[in-house]
Amino acid sequence: MRAESTAIPGVIALHAPVHADARGAFVKPFAAAAFDALELVTPLWSESFWTRSKRGVIRGMHLQHPPAAQSKLVWCVAGVAFDVLVDLRAGSPTYGQTHVAELTARHGAALLVPPGVAHGFQSLASETTLVYLVSEGYEPDADGGVRWDSIGVAWPERPVALSARDAALPALADYQSPFVFDVD
């Protein structure tokens, strides 16, 4: 596994080898030993889930507020995701800035996302499936984020089927961050 820093402190792009043959492919996006070798903090994962989205669907920009703030490991197992992160940590040198990556099953890439960085994506295939490992369980009262259309990202396609939850999130300019940037 190879780790690559991004412009947002604490966000790490991970590249796992894809072992492909005539049967298909095998990818291991998380292994504690690989994280240890890369000197990455390995959170105790609390939940795992996946989302399947049709082409054009945007999900995001989501995170959980303290005390249920989550670290996330996100990767694509089918389709293509235009994946977007936005730094919402007060005092961060990259507050309000975004990181964009394309996630596909073919490339074996994953993103390690620290608390205070919101995540979202747009499906660019007929169906796209993302898998998540998160350090804290879902807490409805801690649910938060910012509206997808307020972060200055040029989404590749016109969005379809936006959820009421995502449409009701505050704009980035109106977001009151409970996160404080920590250099550690």
Largest sheet: 6 strands, antiparallel
Read across the widest sheet, the strand sequence of neighbours is: 1-2-10-7-12-5
Proportion of residues in β-strands: 35-45%
Our measurement of the CA-to-CA distance between the termini, rounded to an integer number of angstroms, reads 23 Å
Tally of DSSP helical segments: 2
The shape, in one word, is: globular
Total domain count:
1
> What's the Cα radius of gyration?
16 Å
User: What is the CATH topology descriptor?
Assistant: Jelly Rolls
- Estimated structural class: mainly beta
Going by CATH, the architecture would be: Sandwich
In the CATH hierarchy, what is the class? Mainly Beta
Task: Give me the secondary-structure topology.
Layout (H helix, E strand, L loop, with lengths): L1 E4 L6 E4 L2 E4 L2 E4 L4 H6 L9 E8 L3 E7 L7 E7 L1 E8 L10 E7 L4 E5 L3 E7 L3 E8 L8 E3 L18 H5 L16
Antiparallel strand pairs: 1-2, 2-10, 3-4, 5-12, 6-11, 6-13, 7-10, 7-12, 8-9, 8-11
Describe the fold and architecture.
The chain is mostly beta strands. It has a single domain (2-174), classed as Jelly Rolls, CATH 2.60.120.10. Helices cover 6% and strands 41% of the residues. The chain has two helices and 13 strands, in the order E-E-E-E-H-E-E-E-E-E-E-E-E-E-H. It has helices at residues 32-37, 164-168; strands at 2-5, 12-15, 18-21, 24-27, 47-54, 58-64, 72-78, 80-87, 98-104, 109-113, 117-123, 127-134, 143-145. The protein has a six-stranded antiparallel sheet, with no helix packed on it. The longest helix has 6 residues, at 32-37. It starts with a strand and ends in a 16-residue tail after the last helix. 36% of the residues are buried. The model has no long low-confidence stretch (mean pLDDT 95).
